[in-house]
Write a structure and sequence with these properties.
By secondary structure, the protein is α+β, with helices and mostly antiparallel strands. Helix content is 27%, strand content 22%. The chain contains eight helices and ten strands. It is globular and about 90 Å long. The structure holds protoporphyrin IX containing FE.
Length: 352
């Protein structure tokens, strides 16, 4: 039998060293991705955990904006948006809309009159199969400038240190404007009277390829009627969903979608800074809410209103929030859908 050729010792050593280098590189990449080298870096799970309310994790529910109600309807595009974006939803026509009115709280059973921020999740579908998802709130600006600051805010407001919020406000003076809004903005008794704002800036690209930095709002057709929180508290813990269901039974509800175009130099990376009032705006169409459906077994339940799900013609800007939000919403979605048994589609005690 012929002898096997012998590898020189140097070549064996070289191969082993190469294997070791590959293993160490893989381990380092894993540790980096997991955030082990930078424990101060926020991860999606840390962000989502930071919402944990005193009553415990709302299993089966969204980790924030946990209380809400579904709706369906249409977006009636008037064609004006086509000058700004080639997205199909801006061509004149009607597009199916699906959404969710909600409250900015991680408590699915919060009493409506106790929650200051109201929101809406919305999906508009186009015939080319593309969808545009967004999640908007009623304040005119966000409390803080960066995702890291938002995480720090959640920790400061949810922790036990009585001075944490004072320290936070000194380090993040931009929060003062939001504090003022919470104290002075009128409350209303209806989702139908709320103006919902994207706050984050996005980039629209028109047919010529020209780009426009924009934010947008849904402006209600219904006239807002101010009601004091004390009066709202007397209406019961779930008055908002009861009111919107009744209102929509009486007829569809409308919001105009108004796109605001930034001037050069307007801050696009900081949603705590509102743009000046005189910016160019374009009314691009009307959201028509035609039907209200329970969240528990409704069409919005398993939708993730991730603001980075955008059709061609709309893209994210240098605003760091949409990417951070996308990662957190995905985590929240994964958790809540895996916990479906904790929030059954049929309410306990009712016949399926
Ligand atoms: C880093 C900042 C933010 C974090 C970590 C965060 C986190 C979350 C999470 C975990 C959810 C639940 C998602 C799900 O399970 O589907 C959620 C929902 C929501 N968020 Fe945020 N959010 C952030 C910023 C914002 C901003 C800037 C806005 C508005 C401009 C906003 C508006 C909403 C709305 C309206 C919903 C409810 C959407 C629905 O009905 O499914 N959030 N957020």
């Amino acid at each position: 039998m012929s002898e096997l050729p012998r590898l020189p010792a140097r070549s064996v050593f070289g191969s082993l060293a190469l294997i070791a280098v590959i293993i160490v590189a893989c381990a380092a990449a894993f540790a980096y991705t997991a955030g082990w080298f930078s424990p101060e870096r926020i991860t999606p799970i840390a962000l989502v955990d930071a919402f944990k309310p005193p009553s415990g994790m709302p299993l089966g529910h969204r980790r924030n904006h946990a209380k809400g109600i579904c709706f369906t309807g249409v977006f009636e595009s008037n064609g004006n948006g086509s000058a700004l974006s080639q997205a199909q939803v801006f061509a004149s026509g009607q597009y199916p809309a699906l959404g969710r009115f909600n409250l900015g709280t991680p408590e699915p059973n919060a009493a409506d009159a106790t929650v200051r921020v109201r929101g809406v999740g919305l999906q508009i579908s186009a015939p080319d199969g593309q969808v545009w998802r967004m999640a908007m709130i009623d304040p005119p600006f966000f409390p803080v400038s960066t995702p890291q600051a938002f995480y720090d805010l959640l920790l400061a407001s949810g922790g036990k240190d009585p001075n944490a919020m004072k320290t936070f406000a000194i380090e993040h003076p931009e929060i003062a404007a939001f504090g003022e809004w919470t104290k002075t903005a009128p409350w209303t008794a209806s989702y139908a009277e709320e103006r919902f704002n994207s706050l984050n800036a996005f980039i629209f690209a028109d047919k010529s390829g020209a780009e426009h930095a924009v934010r947008w709002s849904l402006v209600p057709a219904a006239q807002p009627v101010p009601v004091s929180p004390d009066d709202l508290a007397k209406r019961g813990p779930d008055f908002l969903e009861q009111e919107i269901a009744e209102r929509v039974r009486g007829g569809p509800q409308h919001w105009t979608m108004v796109v605001t175009v930034a001037n050069p130099g307007d801050p696009t990376a900081d949603p705590s800074k509102a743009w000046p009032e005189d910016r160019h705006t374009v009314d691009v169409g009307t959201l028509v809410v035609q039907q209200i459906e329970a969240e528990r077994d409704g069409p919005c339940r398993d939708i993730n209103f991730d603001p980075t799900i955008l059709p061609p013609g709309i893209r994210t800007s240098d605003d760091p929030f949409p990417a951070a939000r996308s990662a957190a919403y995905m985590k929240s979605y994964d958790l809540r859908t895996a916990e479906a048994k904790d929030y059954p589609r049929t309410a306990p005690g009712t016949n399926p």
